[in-house]
UniProtKB/TrEMBL annotation:
<keyword id="KW-0489">Methyltransferase</keyword>
<dbReference type="InterPro" id="IPR052709">
    <property type="entry name" value="Transposase-MT_Hybrid"/>
</dbReference>
<dbReference type="GO" id="GO:0003676">
    <property type="term" value="F:nucleic acid binding"/>
</dbReference>
<dbReference type="InterPro" id="IPR036397">
    <property type="entry name" value="RNaseH_sf"/>
</dbReference>
<keyword id="KW-0808">Transferase</keyword>
<dbReference type="GO" id="GO:0032259">
    <property type="term" value="P:methylation"/>
</dbReference>
<protein>
    <submittedName>
        <fullName>Histone-lysine N-methyltransferase SETMAR</fullName>
    </submittedName>
</protein>
<dbReference type="GO" id="GO:0008168">
    <property type="term" value="F:methyltransferase activity"/>
</dbReference>
Length: 60
């Protein structure tokens, strides 16, 4: 089974201690991303293209 990876933008709800503890308990790896960054994260380009393709296939 592959582990989950969570990428977030460091906004307060995502980095609250209760959330961080739960992610750790669930063995979810957290990828850091600078807060308030205008840059896309390295995965955004590929993720949104894949998501679009997936959603298009679901609606056909």
């Amino acid at each position: 089974q592959k582990g989950l990876i969570f990428l977030h933008d460091n906004v307060r709800p995502h980095v609250a201690s209760t959330i961080a503890q739960k992610l750790h308990q669930l063995s979810i790896e957290v990828l850091p991303h600078p807060p308030c960054s205008s840059d896309l994260s390295p995965t955004d380009f590929h993720f949104f293209r894949s998501l679009d393709n997936f959603l298009i296939q679901k609606t056909v």
